[in-house]
Fold this protein.
Amino acid sequence: MTTAIKGNATSTFGGAITANNVGAGNVLQVVQGSNTTQLITTSTSYVDTGLSASITPSSTSSKILVIVSHPTCEKRSDDSGNGISFQLLRDSTSISSEPIAYGIGNTAPTTLNLMFSVSFNYLDSPSTTSATTYKTQIKNLASGEIKVQRSSAPSTITLIEVAG
């Protein structure tokens, strides 16, 4: 099959879309994972949120755009210096960690809980053609209880392979 690309240029294309037959910057595949299992933790060490997805890049030059959305989080706000931190892992390696909402909370005990959403993007260069798993973890930066996927609302992780 012959397809016009730009102006008078043409290209013959057949078979699967791979990094070898498309230009840099083109999307090669999209994978999405979701989780609705509520996590409740008071840990000050990172724990899995239960959100993950796996992708097998078609080339070592591919980039993976990771899009994470945790839309229903809750944090007990009875502590000063109250905050949380999420991190993103590629397999077992932390590739990005950001304190989220650090310093939120009250200086006096209260029953008011903080409701918030956490979304972030990360462009990764895994340099592999092996199956690769991305997942999120969370930890407390102070005392109190964190809920993720509150009331079983879904969190999502989207992996987009981009030709390098």
